[in-house]
């Protein structure tokens, strides 16, 4: 029995739509109930949010294209100013008309011009009697535009007196959008992350025709068992699945194992998945280079996961700040005087360190440290004198943004911010070299 049912759309179209959006049937059903029939007025604005790769853009494009609903789809990163955005909406609206030829470009500098030209375009396309959908992907970029752009889109149905619905797609919550002066709140809809079962179902649909579905599903199960804790991105997992499947099949191709011999297949693929772990989200090498490295049985050291040339892009003092942060995270506070002062006095030999030799600080993980300790270590490891300028503090903020450092606690604590270094020892060694 199909999950998607709506009296306004044919059953075969809904059945086809359901096959295209696996594990998102409840969200599509909710959208269909919000949109209603073609001639009905829909909600003026809908806000859809969720983490990256949760299917927001794909579901909206598939829904609008499959049901052939009149729409305009714009990425706000590509059209990053209000003029570019408004003009692109008008261009798509005018160019999609099959009855008239492409009209000349009309500049649109203000929201008033946009409202006037939008009404003309709706009349020329004959869309007065059905809902037009304007989808703005990566809508968080609207916050960087003029202050009247976001409120205008939220009330576009009222301003144009037309049957139009604006759909905002974003990775952040609506509370970070709402202007201080207040505006019309949209209807919010949340897209949750795909669970491991959903990812298993979606990725297993791409199995090669020369192998059985059960064989490919077993491979996806192994892949998710390795990568699910560090990567939930469906696009990245699909790329990894396509990249490493040939290695998984090698024992079967050579006749050393059959498709059900899971143990031999796992032993063959395990070292290659460990090497692939070094490049999750980084894409430092192309797919062809990765396949060549696998074919040549290259060592993991040949694959520079988060290594030399990545670090070369960091500013000069950012490298020293990262080294100082690593030293502050993994060295006890009582050793600072011994390591970083030239005249630290005599060191009495005690058995204190011997009690803790068995437990490595790297096994215990990074410890948080205050900002003043980070700067003190920085001043001691840099040869020339470093002034505590705004440039240094902005580079610390950049390292936090790049997730090379993490901030512990709130910014308004009386004792000041505390940080923790999140990079590995190999990363720091590459920077130090």
Question: What's the layout of helices and strands?
Answer:
Elements: H1 11-20, H2 25-35, E1 45-49, H3 56-66, E2 71-75, H4 82-95, H5 111-125, E3 132-137, H6 149-154, H7 156-160, E4 164-170, E5 187-190, H8 196-204, H9 213-227, H10 234-254, H11 262-276, H12 287-295, H13 308-311, H14 316-330, H15 336-340, H16 352-355, H17 361-364, E6 369-370, H18 371-381, H19 390-401, E7 405-408, E8 418-421, H20 425-432
Parallel strand pairs: 1-4, 1-5, 2-3, 3-4
Antiparallel strand pairs: 6-8, 7-8
What report would you give on this structure?
With 433 residues, the protein is of the alpha/beta class. It has three domains: 11-190, P-loop containing nucleotide triphosphate hydrolases (Rossmann fold, 3-Layer(aba) Sandwich), CATH 3.40.50; 196-308, no CATH class; 316-342 and 362-432, Arc Repressor Mutant, subunit A (Orthogonal Bundle). 47% of the residues lie in helices and 9% in strands. Helix 8 packs antiparallel against helix 9 and helix 10 crosses helix 11 (262-276). Residues 21-167 form the Orc1-like AAA ATPase domain. Belongs to the ORC5 family. This is Origin recognition complex subunit 5. It holds the Pfam family ORC5_C.
